[in-house]
Amino acid sequence: MMFATMSVEPIITVHVEKLTGSTANVAIASAAVFSLTALGTVLSGPWLGKLADRVGPLRVLTASLAVATVLLMVQSSAPTLWSFAALRFVTGLALGGITPTVVSTLRRIVPATSVGLVLGYNVSAQYLGQVSGPIVAGWLGGVAGTSTVFLVTGALTALGVGVAVLIRRHTAESPSLA
After folding, report:
1. Measured on CA atoms in the order 136, 139, 143, 146, is the torsion positive or negative?
2. Mean of per-residue pLDDT scores for the chain
3. Are 3 and 129 in contact (CB under 8 A)?
4. Which residues fall within 8 angstroms of residue 23, CB to CB, at 6 or more apart?
5. What is the pLDDT of residue 53?
6. Residues 123, 104: Cα–Cα separation, whole Å
7. Widest CA span in the chain
């Protein structure tokens, strides 16, 4: 999931320039758009974490991924900088439900004797995504255009939705996870 999350970050400036048709103020506009995503995540993370405690982390994870998938796909065709910025903010809101629910799910399904090891692998996977996502997306954006990056990233998060659904079905006997 970190691969998908980080993949769009390096192409935001190029995409903002494409939307505005100008290099004037592109750096500040890109920084604002980038920051709006993070702001959405900061605002929603605690609330979605608390919701996951009530309804189950896999439900929140599945919903967060599904919403992020749709929003990423829509971003590929956002017609203006303002609509793109709004979509990035709302995407940030959805992303706030991912990390806490992944960690919560791992804590619940992994035996206590392996939690540290599995969480270590989780962190390693996150950083692997932070390294590979921007590289692959930068290449893809250069070859196929920035809009394609949003579509491919949306497809990857859709795979994440599928995995979350499979895990929910597999752990249906444990209501605290569903």
Report:
1. positive
2. 91
3. yes
4. 17
5. 93
6. 14
7. 56
d(CA 124, CA 169) in angstroms, rounded, equals: 26
| Residue 31 main-chain phi, psi, to 5 deg | -60, -40
- CB–CB of 16/29 below 8 Å? yes
Q: What is the pLDDT of residues 32-59, one digit of tens each?
A: 999 999 999 999 999 999 999 999 999 9
Amino acid identity for residue 59 in this structure:
R
Enter the DSSP assignment of 78: -
Neighbours of 67 (CB within 10 A): 18
DSSP conformation class of 79: -
Ramachandran assignment for 80, one of left (phi > 0), alpha (psi -120 to 50 degrees), beta (any other)? beta
For 2, 18, 24, 61, 83, the CA distances from 98, given in Å and listed in that order, are 10, 29, 35, 5, 23
- Per-residue pLDDT of 89-148, as tens digits, reads 999 999 999 988 988 888 888 898 999 999 999 999 989 999 999 999 999 999 999 999
Sign (positive or negative) of CA dihedral 139, 144, 145, 147? negative
Tell me the C-alpha distance between 32 and 50, whole Å: 28
* Amino acid 63: pLDDT: 95
Question: Above 70 in pLDDT, residue 72?
Answer: yes
Residue indicated by tokens 């996977």 = 125
